[in-house]
Amino acid sequence: MPNLKAHYFNLKNLAVVITSLLFFGCASMQTPQGGPKDTTPPKVLSMTPKNQTRNFNAKKIVIEFDEYFKLNNEVKEFTISPDQERPPILKVRSKRLEITLQDSLEKNTTYTLNFGKAIADINESNTIKNLSYVFSTGNEIDSLSISGKVTNSLTDELEKEVTVFIFPVERDTLFGKKRPSIYTLTDSSGNYQLNNLRQGLYKVYALKESAGGGDKIYQQISDEIGFIKDPVNIDKNLENINLQVFKELASEFRVLDRKLSNDGIITIIFNQQLKNPKLTVTDPPSVDVGKYVHFNKTNDTAKVWLNDLSFDSVKVAIQDEGKVLQTLNFTRGKKDTYVRDLTITDNAGGGKLNPYQTYTLTFPFPITAADASKITLLEDSVKRTTFQLVKDSTDFLKYYIRYPWKNKRSYDLKFAAGAFTAIFNAKNKEVNKSFKLETADSYGTLSLRVEVPDTTKNYIVQFIDEKKNVIKSSVLTKNSTIIFANYPAGKYFVRVVYDENKNGIWDTGNVKAGTQPEKIWYSTSEMSLRANWEREEKLVIPKAPAP
H or E segment at 11? Predict the structure, then answer.
């Protein structure tokens, strides 16, 4: 008689094994978790008809990729050149992109389909850049090219992902609303190349769009632009057609932002750097009396403090060089109240005071009174009374404390409540500040002997830091020595502006006027300052490069 119990257990064990195999088999089909992030964009496996097909007569083009993908900003990114009245239709079919041509094609013409940054993978949005498809309805394909690099006119840095495009001279539409159909993006080294071009005269541009842009239409307010002044005759392959992008100055004055804050400060931001600005309260005129106005260094932002805030509305006229540019209206509710916090900031960053600077206090409101008796100075915990409290002669937001500060000493300053009084009788709360005097050994000096190539011209010699911030600027017309004295040890560089109009500043370009930015030369020598060291160097300025 068969052993039924043993048979039962064998069947049960078999069922467990089968179930386990199915479970682990299914588990192995899951997408692996973790691992390195995918940074590779989709790859083209095939194009039908093949890329660069001659005697093209198809109505549909199919591009197959190695993974699933999506279309981003198709309307902005995709173009066909020459333009068609009815643009092609793009559809995603699994891992294929189908492009259906709606319009008839011209005879003996080379067409270029440019996808820009429209194609990206599903998961990580890795984008294929500068993908194109070319075909010809005739026996030949246009094969001319133009290439070069794009840099920033002020910083001389290479510009990546800047749009370089060309317009046939007869269809130059930079200031219109039509996107270019022949374009490419610069690579990470600032290089560009446009291929499959037809012989002809073209205007060449480089466009660096602001964040949120991407329509490839120049917006003067926000974008940077570069251009070749004269039309370029593409009758052979052209190399080293280089462009520099720059930010144009606004052609018409405009207020970018304006507000009346809950502390009573009026802030106005302009789109231009004014030369000799002035603000006047025109209505009611009585409010104009006793007002305070503060412009920033570049004269493109103004702050206004009014002594009388009982108005329902005021009109503020913005003037430059005696001309009224715009009048603004500010209103307030009858029940509006204002809260003022009279804070005190100093220039002892990180608890250290530069030994070559005066200890400076800065306030958010105009100071009307100061009481030195409410300030306590301790030097190594010993009270000192010989300090001086000095008001800035021109800036109503600044005060100075003068004292013979000493190395290796600790300083504590206590500003009692009410030490400073601002407009509307606003007073500071109790504030404590502590710092030490940084040693002079941390600073260095550079003596730079400069030779100019032409004494009839102006040269602006600028010391800049690693972030291209200007530390010191000098205008020269002859061989001179510049002393770059008592600056923190570190890496510094020199750049020279060829000041063609002799106005003492770097002037940007203007597309409509056909003017390029003033040329800049960067010295390749690093002008490092060593701590507690005096260094001498020679700088020979080369002639300005040809326009």
Answer: helix 4-28
